[in-house]
Amino acid sequence: MVFLVSGHTVLRAIGVRTGSALQHFVYAVGASLAAGIAGGFALNAAGSLTPLGWALWFWGVTAAAAPVAACRRDTPDLPAWPAPARVRLWQGAAFMLALLVATGAYALAVRDEAAYREFKYTAFWLLPSASGESGRITVGIRSAETQPQLLDLEITLDGQPFAIFRSLTIAPGESWAREIPVPVLATPQKADARLYRPEDNRLYRSVSTLVPRI
Questions:
Q1: pTM surpassing 0.70?
Q2: Which of 20, 57, 195, 212 is the most exposed place for a label (fewest CB within 10 A)?
Q3: Matching CATH number, 122-211, of 2.60.40.10, 4.10.230.10, 1.10.10.10, 3.30.1490.110
Protein backbone atom coordinates (compact mmCIF):
# COMPACT_ATOMS: atom_id res chain seq x y z
CA MET A 1 0.00 0.00 0.00
CA VAL A 2 2.79 2.43 0.82
CA PHE A 3 5.22 1.72 -2.03
CA LEU A 4 3.24 0.12 -4.86
CA VAL A 5 -0.52 -0.48 -4.72
CA SER A 6 -1.68 3.10 -4.18
CA GLY A 7 0.69 4.41 -6.88
CA HIS A 8 -0.41 1.71 -9.33
CA THR A 9 -4.09 2.61 -8.93
CA VAL A 10 -3.31 6.33 -9.32
CA LEU A 11 -1.40 5.68 -12.55
CA ARG A 12 -4.30 3.64 -13.91
CA ALA A 13 -6.78 6.32 -12.85
CA ILE A 14 -4.97 9.17 -14.64
CA GLY A 15 -4.17 7.02 -17.69
CA VAL A 16 -0.36 7.10 -17.64
CA ARG A 17 1.08 4.90 -20.41
CA THR A 18 4.33 3.07 -19.75
CA GLY A 19 6.51 1.20 -22.19
CA SER A 20 7.66 -1.71 -20.01
CA ALA A 21 6.84 -3.51 -16.81
CA LEU A 22 9.97 -2.10 -15.16
CA GLN A 23 9.01 1.44 -16.15
CA HIS A 24 5.50 0.94 -14.81
CA PHE A 25 6.89 -0.43 -11.55
CA VAL A 26 9.20 2.59 -11.10
CA TYR A 27 6.37 5.01 -11.89
CA ALA A 28 4.09 3.22 -9.42
CA VAL A 29 6.67 3.51 -6.64
CA GLY A 30 7.12 7.21 -7.41
CA ALA A 31 3.36 7.83 -7.42
CA SER A 32 3.01 5.96 -4.11
CA LEU A 33 5.71 8.12 -2.52
CA ALA A 34 3.99 11.25 -3.85
CA ALA A 35 0.71 10.07 -2.32
CA GLY A 36 2.53 9.46 0.95
CA ILE A 37 4.02 12.99 0.97
CA ALA A 38 0.59 14.50 0.28
CA GLY A 39 -0.83 12.31 3.02
CA GLY A 40 1.76 13.60 5.48
CA PHE A 41 0.59 17.19 4.94
CA ALA A 42 -3.10 16.21 5.10
CA LEU A 43 -2.78 14.04 8.20
CA ASN A 44 -0.63 16.60 9.96
CA ALA A 45 -3.25 19.28 9.34
CA ALA A 46 -5.93 16.93 10.66
CA GLY A 47 -3.84 15.88 13.68
CA SER A 48 -4.00 12.22 12.60
CA LEU A 49 -0.35 11.27 12.08
CA THR A 50 -0.96 7.82 13.55
CA PRO A 51 -0.71 4.29 12.15
CA LEU A 52 -4.49 4.21 11.82
CA GLY A 53 -4.47 7.57 10.06
CA TRP A 54 -1.87 6.40 7.55
CA ALA A 55 -3.78 3.17 6.91
CA LEU A 56 -7.00 5.08 6.25
CA TRP A 57 -5.18 7.53 3.96
CA PHE A 58 -3.63 4.90 1.69
CA TRP A 59 -6.84 2.87 1.72
CA GLY A 60 -8.78 5.99 0.74
CA VAL A 61 -6.37 6.87 -2.10
CA THR A 62 -6.58 3.33 -3.46
CA ALA A 63 -10.35 3.09 -3.02
CA ALA A 64 -10.87 6.44 -4.78
CA ALA A 65 -8.50 5.75 -7.68
CA ALA A 66 -9.61 2.16 -8.42
CA PRO A 67 -13.21 2.98 -9.53
CA VAL A 68 -11.91 5.84 -11.70
CA ALA A 69 -9.46 3.49 -13.40
CA ALA A 70 -12.19 0.88 -13.87
CA CYS A 71 -14.58 3.42 -15.47
CA ARG A 72 -12.06 4.91 -17.88
CA ARG A 73 -12.45 3.62 -21.42
CA ASP A 74 -9.07 4.88 -22.57
CA THR A 75 -7.02 3.28 -19.81
CA PRO A 76 -3.89 1.92 -21.51
CA ASP A 77 -3.13 -1.77 -21.32
CA LEU A 78 -0.49 -2.85 -18.85
CA PRO A 79 2.88 -3.67 -20.45
CA ALA A 80 3.65 -7.36 -20.77
CA TRP A 81 6.05 -8.93 -18.32
CA PRO A 82 9.31 -10.08 -19.93
CA ALA A 83 9.82 -13.79 -20.51
CA PRO A 84 11.64 -15.54 -17.67
CA ALA A 85 15.38 -15.69 -18.21
CA ARG A 86 17.34 -18.92 -18.05
CA VAL A 87 19.48 -19.11 -14.93
CA ARG A 88 22.73 -21.04 -15.06
CA LEU A 89 23.93 -23.21 -12.21
CA TRP A 90 26.74 -20.88 -11.14
CA GLN A 91 24.36 -17.91 -11.19
CA GLY A 92 21.92 -19.73 -8.93
CA ALA A 93 24.74 -20.71 -6.57
CA ALA A 94 26.00 -17.12 -6.45
CA PHE A 95 22.48 -15.86 -5.73
CA MET A 96 21.99 -18.36 -2.91
CA LEU A 97 25.37 -17.46 -1.41
CA ALA A 98 24.49 -13.76 -1.51
CA LEU A 99 21.12 -14.53 0.06
CA LEU A 100 22.77 -16.47 2.89
CA VAL A 101 25.28 -13.67 3.53
CA ALA A 102 22.52 -11.04 3.54
CA THR A 103 20.34 -13.14 5.86
CA GLY A 104 23.24 -13.72 8.25
CA ALA A 105 24.12 -10.02 8.29
CA TYR A 106 20.51 -9.11 9.00
CA ALA A 107 20.30 -11.64 11.84
CA LEU A 108 23.49 -10.24 13.40
CA ALA A 109 22.17 -6.70 13.06
CA VAL A 110 18.90 -7.65 14.77
CA ARG A 111 20.77 -9.34 17.62
CA ASP A 112 23.13 -6.38 18.09
CA GLU A 113 20.26 -3.90 17.97
CA ALA A 114 18.39 -5.84 20.65
CA ALA A 115 21.46 -5.83 22.90
CA TYR A 116 22.49 -2.23 22.18
CA ARG A 117 21.53 0.52 24.58
CA GLU A 118 22.65 3.98 23.58
CA PHE A 119 22.44 5.46 27.05
CA LYS A 120 23.91 2.83 29.40
CA TYR A 121 25.84 4.44 32.20
CA THR A 122 26.40 4.56 35.95
CA ALA A 123 25.46 7.78 37.73
CA PHE A 124 27.72 8.68 40.67
CA TRP A 125 27.44 11.65 43.01
CA LEU A 126 28.92 13.11 46.19
CA LEU A 127 27.04 16.00 47.81
CA PRO A 128 26.64 17.76 51.14
CA SER A 129 23.77 16.47 53.26
CA ALA A 130 20.41 17.05 51.59
CA SER A 131 18.96 18.11 54.94
CA GLY A 132 21.58 20.87 55.22
CA GLU A 133 23.07 19.32 58.33
CA SER A 134 26.76 20.13 58.70
CA GLY A 135 29.29 17.35 59.11
CA ARG A 136 27.60 14.98 56.71
CA ILE A 137 28.04 14.11 53.04
CA THR A 138 25.91 11.91 50.81
CA VAL A 139 27.39 9.50 48.29
CA GLY A 140 25.19 7.66 45.79
CA ILE A 141 25.25 5.33 42.79
CA ARG A 142 22.52 4.60 40.26
CA SER A 143 22.92 1.97 37.56
CA ALA A 144 21.46 2.30 34.07
CA GLU A 145 23.66 -0.50 32.75
CA THR A 146 22.41 -3.63 31.03
CA GLN A 147 23.92 -6.03 33.60
CA PRO A 148 24.59 -5.97 37.36
CA GLN A 149 27.78 -4.11 38.25
CA LEU A 150 30.30 -5.08 40.95
CA LEU A 151 31.96 -1.91 42.27
CA ASP A 152 34.39 -0.72 44.93
CA LEU A 153 33.96 2.73 46.46
CA GLU A 154 36.71 4.70 48.19
CA ILE A 155 36.27 8.10 49.87
CA THR A 156 39.14 10.37 50.88
CA LEU A 157 39.09 13.56 52.94
CA ASP A 158 41.79 16.11 52.01
CA GLY A 159 43.67 13.28 50.31
CA GLN A 160 43.56 10.92 53.31
CA PRO A 161 41.60 7.61 53.21
CA PHE A 162 38.31 8.05 55.06
CA ALA A 163 35.80 5.34 54.05
CA ILE A 164 35.83 2.22 51.87
CA PHE A 165 32.92 0.13 50.56
CA ARG A 166 33.89 -3.12 48.86
CA SER A 167 31.99 -5.36 46.43
CA LEU A 168 28.87 -3.27 45.97
CA THR A 169 26.51 -5.10 43.59
CA ILE A 170 24.22 -2.66 41.78
CA ALA A 171 21.53 -4.18 39.53
CA PRO A 172 20.19 -2.34 36.47
CA GLY A 173 17.81 0.40 37.62
CA GLU A 174 18.90 0.06 41.25
CA SER A 175 20.24 2.90 43.43
CA TRP A 176 22.61 2.81 46.39
CA ALA A 177 23.19 5.79 48.72
CA ARG A 178 24.78 6.47 52.10
CA GLU A 179 24.99 9.52 54.32
CA ILE A 180 28.41 9.61 55.95
CA PRO A 181 29.41 11.73 58.98
CA VAL A 182 32.64 13.70 58.56
CA PRO A 183 34.55 15.89 61.03
CA VAL A 184 33.83 19.59 60.72
CA LEU A 185 36.86 21.89 60.92
CA ALA A 186 37.41 25.62 60.87
CA THR A 187 38.66 25.39 57.26
CA PRO A 188 36.88 23.85 54.26
CA GLN A 189 37.77 20.26 53.44
CA LYS A 190 37.64 18.52 50.08
CA ALA A 191 36.02 15.09 49.93
CA ASP A 192 36.76 12.85 46.93
CA ALA A 193 34.94 9.66 46.00
CA ARG A 194 36.29 7.17 43.48
CA LEU A 195 34.48 4.23 41.96
CA TYR A 196 36.42 1.18 40.74
CA ARG A 197 35.53 -2.00 38.92
CA PRO A 198 37.27 -4.90 40.69
CA GLU A 199 37.47 -6.88 37.44
CA ASP A 200 40.18 -4.58 36.08
CA ASN A 201 40.85 -2.33 39.12
CA ARG A 202 40.61 0.76 36.94
CA LEU A 203 39.08 4.07 37.97
CA TYR A 204 35.51 4.15 36.61
CA ARG A 205 34.01 7.33 38.12
CA SER A 206 35.37 10.15 40.25
CA VAL A 207 33.45 12.97 42.01
CA SER A 208 34.24 15.49 44.74
CA THR A 209 32.62 18.09 47.01
CA LEU A 210 33.55 20.58 49.69
CA VAL A 211 32.73 19.93 53.32
CA PRO A 212 31.50 23.23 54.80
CA ARG A 213 33.53 24.62 57.66
CA ILE A 214 32.12 25.52 61.06
A1: no
A2: 20
A3: 2.60.40.10
